[in-house]
């Protein structure tokens, strides 16, 4: 299991990135030094909002990009809010 890495200076802030493309480029710059020590990989993006982020991340890290389709699990009283997701294999 991996670890969660945070940037305390960004916690609780809004409007940190111009858009999702900007966020993907920033993530690629942030991950690039560590990624150079890893072997191979793939970027998986969740449509639709994750695709611009994933595309820029894949470009920046020179990795292939693929899509993973999930279905959001909704709260019964609030169809806009989700509490999880199901992947293609039902997990």
UniProtKB/TrEMBL annotation:
A GO molecular-function term, please?
glycosyltransferase activity
| The keyword Isomerase is assigned to this record | no
Q: Which UniProt keywords apply?
A: Glycosyltransferase, Transferase
Residues folding into a coiled coil are none
Q: Which InterPro entries match?
A: PRTase-like, PRTase_dom
Q: Which SUPFAM superfamilies match?
A: PRTase-like (SSF53271)
Q: Which domain of life is it from?
A: Bacteria
Name of the protein this chain belongs to: Phosphoribosyltransferase
State the species of origin: Oceanithermus profundus
